[in-house]
Design brief:
This protein is mainly α. It is built from six helices and no strands. Helix 2 runs antiparallel to helix 3. The radius of gyration is 21 Å and the shape is globular.
Length: 218
């Protein structure tokens, strides 16, 4: 069974490789290297903010988003070396996602979407009222809508916990308020998307608040 530390090191290896490859491309093209986060941005004396489960959830969400982003970037590219780069990044992200999902499942956290029964027959849209979500009328959610509702809930669950955690250790009151506002916005998004699912008797993804290790008076 994979351990969290193994997954973290696995994801870190790919991240470092990607950064190095991007840097090489920029240097070859004489493009200025962006200034990213470094040691100066880290408070090494700060207490631990998140549980092991949250870290695994974070990696799964980042890998999931990366698969989509890299796939889109690949489909917009024609230069051979860049095609190869994005293809490799997509493969790395897919492997990271799979390993992360297996780890979550082994810990009893199922990140999958709601189960939808197979259709018994082929249906066709025959009435304009099918767009009832726009007109205000109610109708059952489609499988695609259910997928996208949950897909949009998970990043907000992740974002809310991150902003709550970072807000506690930020040294600037202005930044703390900024994080607090972000957490509130994510909370509203989670509620709105979840309400749509629960109105159809569908489960909504669980929050990660229990995996955020609250620290007081930092």
């Amino acid at each position: 069974m994979m351990k969290l530390k193994t997954l973290l090191n696995f994801a870190l290896k790919f991240s470092r490789k990607h950064v190095k490859e991007i840097q090489d491309i920029f240097e070859t093209e004489n493009i200025p290297i962006p200034v990213g986060f470094g040691e100066q941005d880290i408070r090494k004396d700060a207490p631990r903010l998140f549980s092991d489960m949250f870290m695994a959830f974070y990696i799964v969400q980042m890998a999931s988003a990366s698969v989509v982003i890299y796939g889109n970037a690949y489909s917009c590219t024609t230069r051979q070396d860049i095609l190869k780069y994005f293809r490799n990044c997509t493969n790395d992200s897919a492997e990271t996602y799979e390993r992360g999902v297996h780890l979550l499942l082994s810990k009893g956290k199922d990140p999958s979407f709601p189960t939808i029964p197979y259709a018994k027959k082929v249906d066709f849209v025959e009435k304009k009222s099918f767009i009832s979500v726009i007109t205000g009328r109610d109708r059952p959610l489609t499988a695609n809508e259910i997928k996208h509702l949950q897909y949009n809930i998970n990043p907000n669950v992740l974002g809310k916990s991150l902003m709550l955690g970072f807000g506690q250790v930020a040294s600037s009151s202005k930044i703390r308020k900024y994080f607090q506002k972000g957490a509130e916005l994510s909370g509203n998004q989670i509620k709105n998307f979840s309400d749509h699912l629960m109105s159809q008797d569908l489960p909504a993804p669980k929050l990660m608040d229990a995996h955020h290790l609250f620290q007081i008076n930092l």
